[in-house]
Amino acid sequence: MSLHHHPASPIMDHCPTTLPARAYHDPDWYAREQRTIWARNWVVAGRLNDLKPGTMKRLQVGSASVILCRAPDGALSAFHNVCRHRGAELCSHDEQPMGKLVTCRYHAFAYAAKDGRLVATGHAHPSDDFRKEDHGLLKVAVKLWAGFVFVNLSEAPGEIAPDMGRDYLKNWPMDDLVTGHRMVKDLACNWKVFWENYNECLHCPGVHPELCDMVPIYGTGIMGDNERPDWTPEEPLRSPLKEGAATWTASGKACGPAFPDLTPEERQNGYNFVTVYPTMFVVAHVDYVRAVFLEPTGPETTRLTAEWYFSQETLDQPGFDAAEVAAFAKIVMAQDCEVAELNQRGLRSPAYDRGRLMPEEYAIRDFHQWVLDQMKEEGA
Ligand code: FES
Ligand SMILES: [Fe+2]
């Protein structure tokens, strides 16, 4: 028997089916996602602040290797990591210093970092039928949002579209924040398993005791007041954090001065989530910001990178330890990663075809719909 929720509640009145099990391990399904989802959307490439001028960074975007170049004058550009001569890889390191040129190590073809123009062909003397202007590096689109660098393999990319809107973090000094802590973890699960876990709290009571202590409503298996059966839109907003807590740290106390421009509501929320599918989410608190990046590394493996950003003022406090602040979310992420891998192992069962979503899993239904819409191929 279903409970009766207010019509404005997001809770579903039915239990839709999940994606089929093969969506989580079939190499063909994965290859199709690479061609569609990961080749058409903006993919995060890290913080602009963490890419010093005069640096080239190598990234994997879907099935493509990409170089992100920050020229000595600070200009940003991105190209496919392949030389136009005979196809050698241009950058073979995660990061390396660079000047104004990108030079291929094989036969020394040199390209302008700013626009990819072919400027020199090493010891080769091309005949007249070879036009240098036709053999520049293959460009990849680059854009900035909230201090993050994004790249997009599409030839006609749209705007970066965070679920809460592009202005959602405007009251946080995003461009100036400094990375104080980073964690990289390789997970044995499909990337979608991670997002599904992110999109529901039915697992919270059993999996996240520390988080449920901090956010009491999570302890009831829901993500917010509007999921309660007795909720109405007229109900005043209240802080979801436990009494006396202001942020997600072990003590609940802010780790430094609060960001000065936040609205009372942003402060009261305690945590403000914004998601950019399929690549990352950000959680903005009164005192620090955390971002999590996902990179599929195979049908059943995903690399997770989590970063913690602080104002310089907070980092400069005597005795400040960013790792101590990060510890709270790390406990929660370790719990999520463990159940994501548990989920993945079960999805391999030959006896499992697909399951049913519960009414509380409306955000997973939306995610599945997004995935299926994205995977439509022209001519398919
Ligand atoms: S393959 Fe790059 S210069 Fe020959
Ligand atoms: Fe979780």
List keywords for this structure.
globular, 21% helix, 15 strands, alpha+beta, binds FE2/S2 (inorganic) cluster, Rieske Iron-sulfur Protein, seven-stranded antiparallel beta sheet, five-stranded antiparallel beta sheet, Naphthalene 1,2-dioxygenase Alpha Subunit, Chain A, domain 1
Explain the overall architecture.
Helices cover 21% and strands 24% of the residues. Strand 3 and strand 4 form a beta hairpin. The chain is α+β, with helices and mostly antiparallel strands and 380 residues long. The chain has two domains: 254 residues, Naphthalene 1,2-dioxygenase Alpha Subunit, Chain A, domain 1; 117 residues, Rieske [2Fe-2S] iron-sulphur domain (Rieske Iron-sulfur Protein, 3-layer Sandwich). Helix 3 crosses helix 8. The structure holds FE2/S2 (inorganic) cluster and fe (ii) ion. The site of FE2/S2 (inorganic) cluster (FES) has 8 residues, from loops.
Element layout with pairings:
Elements lengths: L26 H9 L1 H4 L2 E5 L7 E7 L2 E7 L5 E5 L14 E3 L3 E3 L5 E4 L5 E4 L17 E7 L2 E5 L25 E10 L3 H8 L5 H4 L1 H6 L49 H6 L2 E5 L3 E5 L4 E10 L2 E10 L1 H4 L6 H26 L14 H13 L6
Antiparallel strand pairs: 1-10, 2-3, 2-5, 3-4, 4-9, 6-7, 7-8, 9-10, 11-15, 12-13, 13-14, 14-15
This protein binds FE2/S2 (inorganic) cluster (FES) and fe (ii) ion.
